[in-house]
Amino acid sequence: MYTRTAVWLHWILAVGIIGMLILGFCMLRVPPNTPARGTLLNLHKSLGMVLLAIILLRTAWRLAHSPPPFPDAMPHWQRMTAASVHIALYALLLAQPLTGYLTSAFGIFGVRVFGWELPKVFTANAAARTAFAGIHHVGAALILALVAVHILAAIRNWYFSPSLRGRMRIGTSAVQ
Question: Which residues form the domain of 50?
Fold first, then answer.
């Protein structure tokens, strides 16, 4: 079983990531240069920085606490797929807030986190901003795809792999 801390960090991130994806895609439907878009954008940036802190904490926890082993009966291809999806998710979840930050840092408005403006590190650069915005959008699509794979695998395991059922369920008998 995973530790309680790992389970809680997993579910806090799951809710946060799904919320950020929804907020990000909804934000794109609001006309640019409007107060509503600015409000949503600043909320997205602020929550992104909070999620970055949680992702860093989760990554540190994962490096210090090995996950439980896969069951012996689990086929090799499933082990490799699960490990690859997890590595890709960690990499993208670390990169996504950084590309969002860089998109804003190279823009003319800078970066505000819950109303506090972060120091300007870069001068406005439209080409860099556009490049990081493109990477950020591709990253969101990749995260969405990997989250979908992760959820589908969890559903499959719930019904067809009792030995994997509930390893990340809140309220399990995991310790610490």
Answer: 4-160
Tell me: the pLDDT tens digits for 119-175?
Answer: 989 999 999 999 999 999 999 999 999 999 999 998 988 888 877 777 777 775 554
Judge whether 107 and 121 are in contact, CB under 8 Å: no
Q: What is the CATH number of the domain that holds 68?
A: 1.20.950.20
Whether 173 and 116 have beta carbons less than 8 Å apart is answered as no
pTM of the entire predicted model: 0.89
Q: pLDDT-derived band of residue 176, with 50, 70 and 90 as boundaries?
A: very low
DSSP output for 53-116: HHHHHHHHHHHHSPPPPPPTTS-HHHHHHHHHHHHHHHHHHHHHHHHHHHHHHTSSS--EETTE
Residue 173 falls inside a structural domain: no
What is the number of structural domains in the chain? 1
Q: Is residue 170 part of a domain?
A: no
